[in-house]
Amino acid sequence: MKRVVSFDVFHFSMAFLLFFSCGTSNNAVVSPAANQGIFDFASRTVMLNNGVKMPILGLGTYRLTPAEAEESVYHALLDGYRLIDTANAYMNERAVGRGIHRSGVPREEIFITTKLWPGDYEDVARAIDDTLARLNVEYIDLLLLHQPYGNVAEGYRGMEAALKQGKVRSIGISNFYEKKVGEIMSIATIPPAVLQVESNPYYHQVVMREYVNPYGTVLMAWYPLGGRVDEHNTQTLLFNEETIVEIAAAHNKTPAQVILRWHLQTGNIAIPGSRNPDHIQENISIFDFELTDEEMRRLSALDTGSGAFDFSNVDEEMDFGSFGTRDFNDQE
Ligand SMILES: NC(=O)c1ccc[n+]([C@@H]2O[C@H](COP(=O)([O-])OP(=O)(O)OC[C@H]3O[C@@H](n4cnc5c(N)ncnc54)[C@H](OP(=O)(O)O)[C@@H]3O)[C@@H](O)[C@H]2O)c1
Q: Is residue 321 part of a domain?
């Protein structure tokens, strides 16, 4: 068991400063509950800042076709996964729902994360009802604002309302950088439980981790294995990185398993994407070994401080209208 969110003097001062720098409307800074932020490797969960337990390893479904998503979700749940990550924009929520129901695993044992697209931030109530219908479930475990653009304040308030109605159990944000996280914290009455951002051994997200720590917000890593090789070469570089290859050999594990174990020991919830049942099985077989402090130090030395995307460089006024008018219900 590793403590990954520590409310030491530094973070307490950060919380104090943020509280007063964000204005009096900010109720977002939280007092840590007893187990909050602790990654419990026995139960494979972390206690979020709202007291909800979330699995620390899950399956990602970005770029999976509906047929692939249904099969991957089905295999993952049979292999013991209990966290599935999807999004309105992935156009595979119906298939994710089918995979869940086909697995026979009780709904309450499964943690579903999905994401709203900016075009729907001003119509969150309807977007959530549509999402629930596509997934064919009564509630969403974690709902995120997918991108830091558009009317994020309205979107966040809409998610807070859904939380109070019981349609959503936890809320969070994705791809928000410092300035935009600050914007959310200044209006939030319920702080984000999770911040989903790109992270891998080349991109540790040290700044964002420290920035959200006072709120008890846990990091969730996308592209945990560097992303798909047809999009970026990060995964190829990571899998051939000497340090990672050496550590993998020492534990009789694959580079993918070492990277995923690094995420968990760092305090990142990891959601590797896969359409391959063998990879899905391999990626969850990481609870029978532990990286030493020295190995964690060697992996820390790989941090370059940047990743494939810099969301703060994208034009904030970008028109997401075309995505907003995209019909997310038009999927198999
Ligand atoms: N919030 C956001 O904006 C955002 C952005 C991107 C992604 N995400 C989420 O994060 C999840 C993870 O990201 P990702 O799927 O793009 O990238 P990723 O998990 O870093 O990498 C996926 C790639 O790794 C391969 N792979 C998986 N396990 C492997 C293994 N054990 N050995 C060798 N190759 C392996 C997969 O191929 P196979 O299919 O052949 O296994 C796939 O090509 C997504 O699926 C999505 O849910 C969120």
A: no
